[in-house]
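With this grant's support, we have settled on a layout for protein records. One resulting record is reproduced below.
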Amino acid sequence: MSYTFSGLSCGTGYTFGVEAYDAAGNISGAGESYGSHECMSVSTATAAARQPCGSAATPPTSWQHVVWVVFEEQAYSQIIGSANAPYINRVANKCGLATNFYAEAHPSLPNYIAMTSGSTQGITDDSGPSSHPLSVP
């Protein structure tokens, strides 16, 4: 199966996710295909050929990517279990949900730095990246 996307711009990265539903409401494994920052043709993988996240028979020896979805300024109850957020609830049910995760600091930037590097690195503001050159893993 293939689908052609129109209106995409060269020099812009795109990520596409595909799930297939049958008449009974069963969901296939998600297929993914990634565009790059070049002009290229992107075709989707066969959705049924992939397992949904979290269902591999054995864990991988290394991860190609990890995706965190963070809802800033939204209460847990506004998203999880809400009929207004069916897609993210399917993703949370299939892939995982952090239920014991709290802010390290306020405003937001120190929290994002902590999520990706293990600490706030002493950052206490929301200034742009050029204000905080970090040399940490």
